[in-house]
Fold this protein.
Amino acid sequence: MNKSKEILLAHGGGGTLMHDLIKNVIASRLSNPVLDRLDDSALLDTGGRLAFTTDSYVVRPLFFKGGDIGKLAVCGTVNDLAMQGAKPLAISLSFIIEEGFPLDDLKKIVKSVGSAVKAADVFVATGDLKVVERDGADKLFVNTSGIGSVRKDVNVSSHYAKVGDAVIINGYIADHGVSILCEREGLEFESPVKSDCAPLAGLTQAILSTTKRIHCMKDPTRGGLAAALNEIASSSRVSIEIEESAIPVRRATLAACEMLGLDPLVVANEGKVVVVCSETVASTVIRTMRKHKYGKASKIIGRIVNKGKPEVILGTTIGGSRIVDMPYGELLPRIC
Amino acid sequence: MNKSKEILLAHGGGGTLMHDLIKNVIASRLSNPVLDRLDDSALLDTGGRLAFTTDSYVVRPLFFKGGDIGKLAVCGTVNDLAMQGAKPLAISLSFIIEEGFPLDDLKKIVKSVGSAVKAADVFVATGDLKVVERDGADKLFVNTSGIGSVRKDVNVSSHYAKVGDAVIINGYIADHGVSILCEREGLEFESPVKSDCAPLAGLTQAILSTTKRIHCMKDPTRGGLAAALNEIASSSRVSIEIEESAIPVRRATLAACEMLGLDPLVVANEGKVVVVCSETVASTVIRTMRKHKYGKASKIIGRIVNKGKPEVILGTTIGGSRIVDMPYGELLPRIC
């Protein structure tokens, strides 16, 4: 663990530094069997099985191509529930607002929350609002927590990847991070990159209805595909081999990444899911996914290859291979 | 509604201005039968009955006499569940942290969360952490959301107060707000005022086990007892008469209020509950409450007197009476 006595921006980046902080400073002091799994949602038995998740959103700018902080907050939390195999039931909505924030912008954000909950087939059940003085916060932060129901026969977790499993993604990666960064840097491309921000519970529910052989689902948000795959590798103690040529990246996104010096594998997504399933059902799963609005570009991108040594290996387009590390710290602050 | 085109500090104060903002700007755009009740927790039917609540905490300073932001975040959310008659099951914990925040202070806060969840007989099921750049936030904010189970035969809500009901409080008011303000202003009194911050679910569960004739429970947080009673009056469309001489206020708290020019009725509490119950069971309820750690100074402070005209009337110590208005805006920013 990093020896800094202060919180660094890098602690929020979705990489090793954040995972160590959460594990060693927070979860260790609050340890219990539910929290200790550190999955995207907690899984509780309350009569039925209930998924429970929370996320705070500090994205900057608040409005970007393909979404805004309101849509992002709904989709992010719905997706954390979806990754647990849950059908989202309800979300909460809590604002921290800087004094002087334009009321019209708040209205726009709430309207966007409204459209997003409709699209995600969920509703806002409860909320809260705090105002802090000027300079006490940067404009507006949102927290959404969510609960969802999980069918008895659904058991997906980053811990359940098995050797031989196929690794699937539902489409083009890195669009969210690139769109935010372009917005922030005032970069304009001929075909502007839009955030992929989308609610995935419909897609994940469709996948789970197809077969019982889905082992993990994980959304590659902060830290990108690299972090998501490393988390699966580490939780399941397996090696994952992926093929660079198989990973869908839009031409404009790739161009932007090259210009900005970014590896698309570590750039955040907000409408992507990595599905790990038995090899035998992979083509059926792909068929199901491609029928769905948010799965049209679904592809197998790799396999689980070995037990014991958690690592992610990328077969490159030029025929070599390299280890894809867990990102260390902060690549793009305030991406979500 | 105030015509300002900007969010004011006063919008966060727990008064009329906040209620109007939440109702007209937020809830109106997200309307559904669960949210529209605007109770302390949402009540959901998910097989069993589930309470769901959220709160963000922006209190300043982070550490104060009687607690800190960690303890406050746990108690506040546990109490919102308790007010719905729920037994808290699990909470979530999400941090927004300013770059440069001392790691040792984070550890202290997490430790305090740990003690508080133990005291409240609940656990942290899931969490999140975001870091923003220096000056992007004032030190550290916390969001806790919570879920709890509600027995089938429990039906409490601010909407259910009935004419003739007794109004009870579980002890001394205004300690939380006064302690925060003293801390902030560097005021020292001979007997320093400590925040009353405490988890009330044990007490409320004990109350509900005593009788089925509990109609409302409400925690007088932002906006104090004045706001809580006005909310009950308005939701139930009743008048409430309270006796100034019956309301427990510590001498030191009263002295501080007089010095600071504050009305104890509008100062925030974090370990208080207003219980509205049938007059016939009031003495039994008081007996149950006084047996509990957080109910030793429980007292009847008033009655529900009339149907139709929502107002709160205070019988003063000098024999007169006055209307206690819903506070308008911000009395003490960042009190919770």
In short: The two ends of chain A are 24 Å apart (CA to CA). The first strand of chain A starts at residue 42 and ends at 46. Chain A touches chain B through 80 residues (CB under 8 Å). Chain A has a mean pLDDT of 94.
